[in-house]
Amino acid sequence: MTLFCAILMVMNRSEQLRKLHEQFHHDCTCTLKDTATRPVFGNGNPDAEIVFIGEAPGKKEDETGIPFVGTAGKFLNEMLESIKMKREDIYITNIVKYRPPNNRDPEQKEKEQCADWLRAELEFIQPKLIIFLGRHSMNHFFPNLKISEAHGKYIHEKIPNFPIANFLPLYHPAAALYNGGMRENLMTDFAKIPGILIKLTN
Predict the structure, then answer these.
(1) pTM for the complete prediction?
(2) CB–CB of 117/76 below 8 Å?
(3) What is the spatial distance between Cα 48 and Cα 57, in angstroms, rounded to a whole number?
């Protein structure tokens, strides 16, 4: 047993997850690391039944080190409240852990450089359901899907050597904020989450 594994065994799950993030930040070769202020670790309940995956940290996230704390994060909090949930009930993270310059889309190489980190935190939490916030996180797992067609549609698919098989693509809150039709779709899709969880629990 490595010293790192031995240390993890004596920590509670929140501490274990924090240590996992710190280790990956130390080892990560993502080129965004050079321009970001700090890493933005996943945040929330380490025993969550749901993990939300976004695209990349923005300006507010880069300043605070916490995902989804800007305008899109506030909208997400409102939607969680609409289904009787709180941020403390879920876990939220991003495909890449560092802010891309000027909030540009993360490049494929950058996503690949953070891929092992994302996989490790998902395998640690082992949620019942992964919810994609936007096309970037969805296409990381399902590259051939289009968010305009897949949003709100529950996906059950086993991925080789991956412990989670339940997924729900949604529009990204930032994209839906100022688009009335997309916002309505997102809120309708969001309302499906409790029913999906019940089916996965029974």
Answers:
(1) 0.92
(2) no
(3) 21
